[in-house]
Amino acid sequence: MDLILPRLREIGDKKDVKIYLVGGYIRDYLLNKSNEDIDFVVEKDAEIVAKEFAESINGKLITLGGRHKFYRVVDSKRNVIVDISQLKGNDINEDLLNRDFTINSLAVDIDKIENGEISNENIIDVANGLDDLNKGIIRHVKDNTFEDDPIRMLRAVRFMSQLEFELDDTTKRLIKRNKEKIKDMPYERITHELFKLLKYRRTYYYFNYMDRTLNILEEIFPEIEPMREIGKCKYHVVDSLTHSIYTLKVAEDIIYADGYFEDHVRKAYEEHTKKIVASDHTRLDLIKLGAFFHDVGKPSAKKVDETGRIRFKGHEITGAEIVKKIAERLKLSIKERDLLYKMVAKHMLPLVLYKNNDVSGKALYGMFSELKEDTLDILLISLADIIATRKLLYPGEEMGKFKVHIEYMANNYLTRYKEIEKISNIITGKEIMQKFDLGENVLVGDLLEEVRKAIYYGKISANKEAALRYIEQIL
Questions:
Q1: Which long-range CB contacts under 8 A does 78-83 form with residues at least 24 apart?
Q2: With 346 labelled, which of 148, 217, 339, 409 sits at a CA distance of 20 to 30 A?
Q3: pTM (2 decimals)?
């Protein structure tokens, strides 16, 4: 703010225009939280003010929004991002009364901010936002808040998670009354809020809250509605939706636990889950979604056999097709869509090896070859799934044996397979073709796979010279 405020004051004085700091920055300042989203409103000439501000800091000006335009000034070198918009209404009071929640309906004249400090007596608070901030309550500003913008229903839950606040009872009722309107929103906006929610801990709690308390989760994901009616069988004592939310909880318990896995496995998971898949969406975000949707195919796969036993054979395949459509509706990238598909389609694979009591080199190599770089994600979802199932079925059962099984596979993947996952780091097809006169029936890809297997099984060392010698032997 040391750079931003003086420049804006100069522009405001020159243009004779009032400029206000508004919204989330003030909220988080009062909560002693950091906030890189800095929003200003101006009485008039927002575009001109934004343009002059951008020029004054050598920043880039971006025009955003549709009918209600606002202007973003970005200076990546100084890590400055500022949004400037024209106030809505006749004055700042009217503008604040058109905002979403009382804790965001706060403003301060930038001329009254001294040394970057904001005092309560200078805050314009027309909706009692300071009182709600002190009480830890998310409350709507006006009764048509969710009619004006149904995305605010998701924002309410996101702020609950972000700030660890409670939702006002009247606000809850308004959301339930307007819940169907969220279906009419562009899915890009739904996805934006959904992935913000996935960034915080206890996602399972807020998914459950959206389902049981607000009834909006099924509006966003109608595919979950049939899951309420099925799922109870020999292995499950609750319906599929309840199990899926519980699986998400277990996955989060594992992810955020300190010392659940042995150190090198834990560190590998920490590094792996931070990786960006697309946009700012991480593998951790997608693991959470994968855990939630892992059994979404059960309603379509339900069968009753000749003994009267309910079975869900193939639910992972039907579920993968369903989650693919969900990903497309959410406008996720192809990479994200394919990862979610794989998480759901393959989540049973580690369990099959457990049931068969088979963790042989051959079995593990086969699984790693299928799962590749997504192995750790699917192992985690599989572990969460089996613990969520067994804890309810047999509460006194020792869960450590399932952890040991998955940890062994994760360790094997990290120490034996990961380094050869990209075999081109050791030897390339081009190098093989340059070294050997291959016949028409010899495929370079097959030779690379043979090298990968030989390294995994310990037949040769993981270097180019050993690989070339091995190829010479088998040709």
A1: 78/3, 79/36, 80/3, 80/4, 81/36, 81/37, 81/38, 82/4, 82/38, 82/39, 82/40, 82/53, 83/37, 83/38, 83/39, 83/40
A2: 217
A3: 0.91
Which residues, in sequence order, are CB contacts of 372 under 8 Å at separation 6+? 421
* Whole-number Å distance between alpha carbons of 207 and 187: 17
pLDDT of residue 441: 66
Q: Which residues contact 177 (CB under 8 A, 6 or more apart)?
A: none
Query: Per-residue pLDDT tens for 206-264?
Result: 999 999 999 999 999 999 999 998 866 666 678 999 999 999 999 999 999 888 899 99
Structural tokens at position 130: 């300071």
Residue ranges and CATH numbers for the domains of the chain are 1-135 (3.30.460.10), 221-420 (no CATH), 424-474 (no CATH)
168 and 138 in contact (C-beta within 8 Å)?
Answer: yes
Measured between alpha carbons, how far is 412 from 396 in angstroms, rounded to an integer?
A: 29
CB atoms within 10 A of CB 300: 17
- Could you tell me which of 134, 110, 133, 136 has the C-alpha nearest to residue 122? 110
Gap between the Cα atoms of 426 and 337, Å rounded: 30
Residue 66 pLDDT > 80: no
Report the DSSP beta bridge partners of residue 107.
22, 124
Alpha-carbon gap, residue 43 to 87, rounded angstroms: 6
Which backbone phi and psi does 279 adopt, to 5 degrees?
A: 50, -125
